[in-house]
Amino acid sequence: MSDDTAILTVDHATVVYGSEAGLAQAVNDVSLAVAPGHILGVVGESGCGKSTLAQAIMRLLSPNAALVEGRIAVRGRDMYRMSENELRMFRWKHVSMVFQSALVTLNPVIPVGKQFQEIFQIHEPTMSQVQVRKRIEELLSLVRIHPQNLSNYAHELSGGMRQRIAIAMAIALDPVLVVMDEPTTALDAVVQREILDEIRRIQEIKRFAVVFISHDLRLVSYISTEIAVMYAGKIVEVGSAHHFMAAAHHHPYTQGLLDSVPKLSGEGFTIRAIPGSPPDLVHPVRGCAFHPRCSAAYDACLAASPILRSVGSSKFACFDIERRENEKAHG
Amino acid sequence: MGERKDLLSADNLVVRFRQAQGFRRAVIYPVNQVSLTIARNEVLGIVGESGSGKTTLGRALAGMVPIAQGSLWLKGRNVTELNRKRLREYWAEVQMIFQDVYNSLNPVYTVEQQLLFPIQHHALPNVEPDQELERLLHLTGLTPAAAVRTRLPHELSGGQRQRVAIVRALASGPELLVADEPVSMLDVSLGADILQLLLDLRAEFGLSIVYITHDLPSAVYLCDRILVMYGGRIVESVSADNLVKHSQHPYTQRLLAAARFEGPEESSARSSDSVTSSVLLESHRGCPYAERCPIVSEICTQTRPELVQINSDHTVACHAVSTSLEERNG
Ligand SMILES: Nc1ncnc2c1ncn2[C@@H]1O[C@H](COP(=O)(O)OP(=O)(O)OP(=O)(O)O)[C@@H](O)[C@H]1O
Ligand SMILES: Nc1ncnc2c1ncn2[C@@H]1O[C@H](COP(=O)(O)OP(=O)(O)OP(=O)(O)O)[C@@H](O)[C@H]1O
Ligand SMILES: [Mg+2]
Ligand SMILES: [Mg+2]
Questions:
Q1: CA nearest to A218, candidates A265, A161, A259
Q2: Contact B187 A17 (CB under 8 A)
Q3: Could you tell me whether strands B225-230 and B233-239 are parallel, antiparallel, or unpaired per DSSP bridges?
Q4: Going by fewer Cβ within 10 Å, which terminus of chain A is more open, N or C?
């Protein structure tokens, strides 16, 4: 899957963690591409490898992890062929990341405003103090933070305020790619919507690409142009967000996620959980990783692991969908 | 203070913080004259906007921030007057799950080391700590348990850390659990399992829970009663059953619309000011929501509305609601 116009291309990426228990494949043969102006939403349950994928894209993997296979390129430049120095200048300016915890980005002993200024001092040394100040205030108003809060330390801000500041920092230098790892988990629905609308608005003007990671399918379908569903380190379904909620087929895992979206009615909310326990990445089961929890599983699913194939306008890694498609094609 | 069945009650609680604001130092009131009671076995929800004071209120209830005014009572004992030793006992009875899990686990202890100690300390005599640990790990989906036990916090995903923090809080057998966004990083399916676990523990051990969240659907699902906070104050208090159908405060209604993903594009309705800055200052006058309220009137910018009882389980602080109530009653 290489797209010349894409800002981000990930080709057959596999990431492995080494630990006492053995090797864990947290990202398993993942390929994807994101074009300018597009937002790729990545959903999947806790522990399926979303943050690992994000860190792999940024080349910010933990010391005990490695990209053992595949290639990751931003604007055609291989992230893993840059020198440390090139990489340092490339991050923030061209690619930036909002981490799952804002405390990763924010330094506890420096007021947040000073950290903001440092980003500009390092990457835009020609900007004047006044220009920097004005730009920071613009950015803060996007995420609804008062400039007064610039003199605060991270611990003096609420969880959601910290997240919003981390979002503002990530888009500060107009990067071409922003990777957002659960950027709005600490925010209520009202502020969440405001910020997402704002991200989409500036994204339409600046045409940057976004990888938006979340465990919330409804949120992802609201903001994204494409949606990828991950299970046990693999992409099991990917397609346009436009058709997503109404699509005829879904991977059984996606269907489980859709069914577990709480419904708001006069009676309150009902929630349905997906049965079974999350997969073991160190000792993966034979066959499709989802088969122990899948009601549609049959013998093929126990024997081999399905790969992504196009069915209609989406792609699926599911033998059951393939089988049903074949039956339809042959009468 | 407080009725017999109340486990915890807070009376006009005020928390004050000093913050640098520009070149000056300002005093803010993230918790301002908050009164509430939590009965045994009750699940009380606290919802509200980012920066409205939810975490600070939770920390105050857990005895972790100084209380500037008002009083806090646990089982008839005045917590605000406890000495250090007694406060430590209080912390065992009242456990808190923190919003930011990247900070709340000890980075140099494995999962097993974090959890076995509280389990050993509080386990019932016929419970084997090791088995109890396995059981809790399974209940929270931290499987395969054998592999998870030996991990350090940084070797876990965000949602896995959150679940370890939940297990740790539950392991010490608290009477009250203050859970600050405990499932914010989990998908609905797993989140639902954990909320169910909390409900089971309540049924089994009579645990009371303060559930702090920005997520209205899960609050309605889990809670008996819900407090809606805005600008450091409670603006509405209502049973979870009635929240969806009968809530009255314009801010609660806006939250509901956003939870349904409906309503006007938020960007057209936004005010230029931030949510949190000025309404928490002492000098603030009027209703904290006035600046953003679609039905604001003159009085709202002048006088702060008091909480008014609408019926036995429903109070609202809103001038528009009070006025229409008075008109109806003649
Ligand atoms: N440093 C590490 N060493 C070993 N295993 C790790 C390490 N970091 C993560 N893992 C494991 O790799 C898997 C994927 O983790 P990752 O953080 O990518 O998940 P995630 O999809 O982001 O989950 P969440 O939604 O809970 O944040 C998990 O099972 C996790 O336990
Ligand atoms: N230690 C502190 N010192 C000074 N100010 C603080 C401190 N902790 C919180 N604040 C301020 O108190 C206000 C309320 O913060 P709090 O964390 O209680 O909000 P919250 O409702 O939990 O928000 P969120 O949903 O974003 O987590 C914020 O304006 C914050 O900046
Ligand atoms: Mg993650
Ligand atoms: Mg909070």
A1: A259
A2: no
A3: antiparallel
A4: C
Determine, yes or no, domain membership for A224: yes
Dist. CA B185 → ligand 3 center (Å): 8
Tell me the β-bridge partners of B37. Answer: B9
Nearest alpha carbon to residue A153 among A102, A105, A106, A111: A111
pLDDT number for residue A243: 79
Report the domain count for chain A.
1
Domain residue limits, chain B: 8-248
The residue whose CA has the least distance to atom 31 of ligand 1 is: B156
| A124 pLDDT above the threshold of 70 | yes
Whether A231 is covered by a domain: the verdict is: yes
**What is the C-alpha to C-alpha distance for residues A84 and A313, in angstroms, rounded to an integer?**
40
Amino acid at A295: S
The secondary structure of chain B, three-state, reads CCCCCEEEEEEEEEEEEEEEECCEEEEEEEEEEEEEEEECCCEEEEEECCCCCHHHHHHHHCCCCCCCEEEEEECCEEHHHCCHHHHHHHHHHEEEECCCHHHHCCCCCCHHHHHHHHHHHHCCCCCCHHHHHHHHHHHCCCCCHHHHHCCCHHHCCHHHHHHHHHHHHHHCCCCEEEEECCCCCCCHHHHHHHHHHHHHHHHHHCCEEEEEECCHHHHHHHCCEEEEEECCEEEEEEEHHHHHHHCCCHHHHHHHHHHCCCCCCHHHHCCCCCCCCHHHECCCCCCCCHHHCCCCCHHHHHCCCCCEEEECCEEECCHHHHHHHHHHCC
Say whether residue B220 is in contact with chain A using an 8 A CB cutoff. Answer: yes
Q: Is residue A150 part of a domain?
A: no
Q: Which atom of ligand 2 is nearest to the CA of B180?
A: 22
Q: B interface mutation test: which of A133, A188, A222 has the most B CBs within 10 A?
A: A188
Q: Smallest Cα–Cα separation from A290: which of A311, A276, A273?
A: A276
- Across the range B81-100, mean pLDDT stands at 85
Q: What is the mean pLDDT of residues B50-66?
A: 93
Closest-CA residue to B232 (of B305, B288, B299, B308):
B288
Q: Is A313 in the pocket of ligand 1 (CB under 6 A)?
A: no
Sign of the torsion angle spanned by Cα atoms B192, B198, B204, B208: negative
B273 touches chain A (CB under 8 A): yes
Residue A219's closest chain B neighbor by CA? B261
Q: What is the pTM of this model?
A: 0.92
The answer, yes or no, to whether the previous bond of B144 is cis (omega within 30 of 0) is: yes
Domain span holding position A246: 8-94+175-329
Residue A223's alpha-carbon distances to A94, A213, A257, B245, in angstroms, are 22, 11, 17, 28
pLDDT of residue A1: 44
- Report the complex ipTM: 0.90
B146: Cβ–Cβ under 8 A, 6 or more apart, which residues? A21
Element (H, E) at A232: none
Q: Strand order in B6-21's β-sheet? A: B24-39, B6-21, B69-74, B77-78
Compute the distance between CA of residue B231 and CA of residue B238 in angstroms, rounded to an integer: 18
The tokens describing B84, both together, are 């250090």
According to CATH, the topology of domain B8-248 is Rossmann fold (3.40.50)
Say if CB B55 and CB B62 are below 8 A apart: no
- pLDDT, mean over chain B: 87
Is-contact B196 B222, C-beta < 8 A?
no
Q: What is the CATH number of the domain that holds A48?
A: 3.40.50.300
| Burial status of residue A329 (CB atoms within 10 A of its CB: 0-12, 13-18, 19 or more) | exposed
Tens digits of residue pLDDT in A200-246: 888 888 899 999 999 888 889 889 999 999 999 999 999 999 878 87
A310: which 2 tokens?
Answer: 């196009």
